[in-house]
Each structure stands twice: as C-alpha cells, then as structure tokens.
TrEMBL record, chains A, B:
Residues 15-187 form the 3-hydroxyacyl-CoA dehydrogenase NAD binding domain. Coiled coil: none annotated. Belongs to the 3-hydroxyacyl-CoA dehydrogenase family. Residues 193-258 form the 3-hydroxyacyl-CoA dehydrogenase C-terminal domain. Keywords: Oxidoreductase. Pathway: Lipid metabolism; butanoate metabolism. This is 3-hydroxyacyl-CoA dehydrogenase NAD-binding domain-containing protein. Transmembrane segments: none annotated. The keyword Cell division does not apply.
Length: 330, 330
C-alpha cells in the first residue's frame, strides 16, 4: 500500500484529462496550479480554445484559493489520439459522456496504452466502476473519483471502488486527491448517485414541492436554507447536528424524542412533485425573478468568492489545509 | 403598518418569555443582550436556577457574536403567574410544550392580560397559528415565530401567519426579529413542519437510509456533507446552486438536462428507512464511535464557535448585519 500520513503529489508528474468539458477543465486547472503537467484528450476540433477560455475563467478562483496561477498553461498540452495522450502519464482522470459503452471503449484503450503504474480514475457521477471495469483485463486498477462540481473549488471527491477495485488503487486515489488539497471520502458500497447527489436530490425534491405548493418562492427557500441548515451543515453534518440537538443523551435521545415523530408524521408527508408543465413554468418564472438580473457566469463568480471566504474562515483552502492542524470546523 | 426600512428594538422595552426550556433561555439571553428586559414565566419551582445556569452556558456564544454580556441578568425577572407576567410587556414569545390545548389556554390568558399593543408570537415548530388562534377573541394578533434552534445563534426565524393573522402583526413580527439581528422569513402558507424542518427531515431520511445500508458511516456522511452540499448551501441555496449548475441557461436548462433524470431515476430510488431496532442499534453504535469521546455540551460549544467563525466571515453576526451593506454572501 502506498498510503502515507502526508501524501504528496511527487509521484504525479503528468496527468491525462480525458474530456475537456466543465469538469475536465476544472481538474486541469487544479492540477496545473499544483504543478502537474496536463495533457487534454478530447475529439472536438476547437478543444484548445475551449480549454484555454475555461482556464481563464477559473484562474481567479484558483488564485483566491491561494494557488499560483501565473503561467497555468505552461504545463498544458493537447493530444487528440487517446492512446498517445495517456502514454507516459502518472494519472488518468476521465470526464467523458455518461454512456457506459463509450466509457468502456475509452478505458480499454487507456488500459492498454497507459503506463502500468498510472492511477486510473473516472469522474462519472452515475456509472459504477464495476460496470466499466467489466470490460477491462485488470479491473482492479479502475476507481471512481467523483468530484462535487466544480472540482477546483468544492473539497469533496467521492472515491467509489467497484467490486474488483484493489485496495491499493483505493488508497492511491485517496492519497492523490488529498495531495491535491481535496477531501476524498471512500464509499463502502456502490449505490446509484453515490452519496452527495442522493442527499442533494432528496432535499431538492422537497424544495420543488414547497415552491410548487406556494409555501415559499425559490428565493425565499434559498434564504431559509442559507440562514439555517446550510449554515449548520457547513460546520457539522446532519448526524452531528442531531446528536447535539438531542440533549445530553445525544443521537439515541434525539431518535426517541424527535426521530420517531419525524418517521411517523413528517416522512410520509414529504412531497412527491413532478417537473410537469405548471411546475416548470413556476420554477422558470421564479428563477427569472430571483436570478435573472445577472448572467449565470457573474452569479457563479460571486458565489465562488463567497465560498472561498467561507473556506478560508474554516481554514479549508488548499494553502491552509496543507499546514493547519487546528481547523475551526467542529 | 409598522414596517420601517431599518427596524429597531425601541418599541420593545420589556418581553415575556413563556417557558424557560432550551428555546426560552436562548430567546431570553438574546433579548437581554440586546437590552430588552425579560420576565420568564414557567411553573417549575427551580426555574430561576435553570434559567440562570442556561444563560451562563450561552453567554460565551453571545459574546462571540459581538453582543454585550457583562450583566445579562440585570434585566431578568421571574413571575409564576402568567397574567401578571405578561402585564406591561411589549412582546410575548411563548415556548411551551407542543400541546394544542395547553397552548390555547396559555394564549387565552395572555390575550386578556397583555397590553393591547403587545406583539404575540409562539415558537411552536408543529402547531399552526390558525389552530391556536381559533380559541382567541382576536386571532389576528397571534403569529408563529419559529426559530431554528438555538435562536440566539442561528439566524432563521420562520414567521408563519395563521388564516386570521393580520398583515400588521406579520410586519411587526418581521421587524421585531430583524431588529433582534435575526433573518425572519415570512411563509405564504401554513404547512406541517413549515419549511426548514421539512427540508431537514427529507435529507435526514436519506442519511439514515445510506447508513443503514452500509454505504457510509455517520461520520463519513457528515464529512461528505460538510465538504460539499453544506459548504454550498451556506452561501447559496438549492435553487441558486442548480441555477448556477445548469450552464448559461440556468435553472430551466438544469431541469431539462438533469432535473428530469433526477425525477425519473433518483427520486423513486430514494430510501424509505425506519427507526427499527437494527437501524437504531447501528445509529447508536456509530454515534458513540463518532461523538462518544466528548460531552454533548463540549461538542456543541465547539460547533457553535465554528458557526460563529463562519457567520463572521460572511458578515452575518449581529454586530455585522447591523451595519454591513456589502455582505460576502452571494
């Protein structure tokens, strides 16, 4: 096992990024800022322009995170032939379309062409490693490394081993993402949507219901979240929160006093909305009211700045996490 | 209407806090720190000791929030007779047990004994104002002011009018909580659990499921949340997040490209766990592993400090919100 107490990027001189979309560009920017050479493989003719424009867009956030962005593109290259692209790399992070057959084809080529020591990870949010690796000679080498978008900013990476992924691969992936300044979390079981997207999806379902029912507008609901549960869950997750909300007896006391009532009265009453025409019309109209005054790009940049402010306060920016031993987070 | 652009606490010289439990003490501490006299009404014989001990416990957090706590108890008094307690107050915040008949009895007494100008609010998390006010001569005076626990720390107060609550009462409640440094949000419709608890409950259901299924432990799930959706939702709520995650087309584009897949594949697959013996045993054992090393009180104090660090970074502590015009939050 390669697991070390303080993982470094030393073993990762060169990375292949397969697929230069939003996720691929974000990974590329983060790797380049951390001094790793990046070769981008993407069949699109205008991929160089797209990636360079994307890097320009995320450079301010990388700089805000305390990473050097002076000459990001110095270590960047492009290679349209997949086998050539992955020859000589130390890690492959694949961000192709979410289609099983296409991913299998990509990974069969990578398996043959990449060095035997290369770490092989897919950013997929929906396809289990087991399904992709079924097409490989050495399924133990492939692991899911699913970032929470965008990877250069949000700390979480869900590391999801397939049935045949080796423990060594899992540990190497964990170390690699840790060295990149991310917060990898290894899941114990493959589950559609993994964890973060399932949780997000469960909550969003109720959000859509409450807006469709006219209880609140989108903007009002967002304000409720940022001023209560969002604020809470940024420093303590749901279990810790309810452990602390249960009195001196902690979570077991919470379950007895409030959890059983939640199961009986609240869970069956949760909404089952649908994106029917009326709901979509309401959601669209309110989104325009709430967010229509500025471009998505400008709003995203504003949100990212606030995000970094918060991460800095919690000592969770990459420059802090590299050295901090007394983070503010509970 | 009493609604003013910058509401102040000037009209609120004296408050009655009915019920001196955790919520009542938290309201009392916040009011006292903001210079409002507080009379606590609670039938328990040892209520004075309980409240004073509770105030000592939250004083450090109030001080961290930038509020004066030098002589909190100077404005504090106790009155076991409800009618006497509410005579001469400017606002009543009731935090009694969640039993409809008891609340009706309390509020009938308050309605007769409190001054005609007093703002009347109940902290209830589960009983609609309409149901309580049905017992009152002037139902237009009562409104729900449901804090997210603990009220002295978490900004949200859900202001939920009953069918007969007057607009004037709603506006006065909004102004009162704003002047207290809270972030009141007026709901447009009564709904069991209001909004924040419904959302929390929807997400927690999936949390329990994923732990019961062995996909992650409680601690791992908490870390996933704090390093992804919690961090996100502290600065931008779910609708804004998906508006920004949908590409240049915003939320409508998100719904078409990802929302419909979420409805089709994810929502029906969400878990339906139950607090059966096996699940409770798992949750209890993991809570002990994750949180058992320290007392609930110490962990809560640590969490509250992290919370205040985050609020200060976002300029959302009471001293900041009173003056800031350029908050960092998106």
């Amino acid at each position: 096992m390669n697991h070390t107490p303080t993982p470094t990027l030393a073993p990762y001189r060169r990375a292949a990024i397969i697929g230069g979309g939003v996720i691929g560009v974000s990974w590329a920017g983060l790797l380049l800022a951390r001094g790793v050479e990046v070769v981008v493989n993407d069949p699109r003719e205008d991929i160089e322009d797209l990636v360079r424009a994307g890097l320009d867009e995320i450079a301010p956030a990388l700089a805000d995170l305390g990473l050097p962005t002076g000459n990001l593109a110095a270590g960047l290259s492009f290679e349209a032939d997949l086998a050539t692209a992955v020859a000589g790399v130390d890690v492959v992070q694949e961000n192709g379309p979410e289609r099983l057959e296409l991913k299998r084809e990509i990974w069969r080529t990578v398996e043959d062409a990449a060095p035997a020591h290369a770490l092989l990870a897919t950013s997929t949010s929906s396809i289990p490693a087991t399904a992709i690796a079924a097409a490989l000679r050495r399924p133990e080498r492939l692991v899911v490394g699913h970032p929470f978008n965008p990877p250069h900013l949000v700390p979480l990476v869900e590391v999801v081993p397939g049935e045949k992924t080796s423990e060594e691969t899992v540990e190497r992936a964990r170390d690699f993402y840790t060295a990149l300044g991310k917060k990898p979390q290894v899941l114990r079981k493959e589950m559609p949507g993994f964890v973060a997207n399932r949780l997000q999806s469960a909550m969003f379902r109720e959000c859509v219901y409450l807006v469709a029912q006219g209880v609140v507008t989108e903007q009002e609901l967002d304000e409720i979240v940022t001023s209560s549960i969002g604020l809470r869950w940024a420093v303590a997750g749901p279990f810790r929160t309810f452990h602390l909300g249960g009195g001196p007896g902690g979570l077991p006391q919470f379950i007895e006093h409030l959890g059983r009532g939640m199961e009986r009265d609240m869970w069956p009453a949760l909404g089952r909305p649908s994106f029917d025409d009326a709901t979509v019309a309401t959601l669209t109209e309110q989104a325009d009211d709430a967010f229509g005054g500025a471009s998505v790009g400008d709003l995203a940049a504003e949100r990212d700045r606030a995000q970094i402010t918060l991460m800095r306060a919690l000592r969770e920016t990459p420059d802090d996490t590299a050295t901090a031993t007394d983070g503010a987070r509970a």
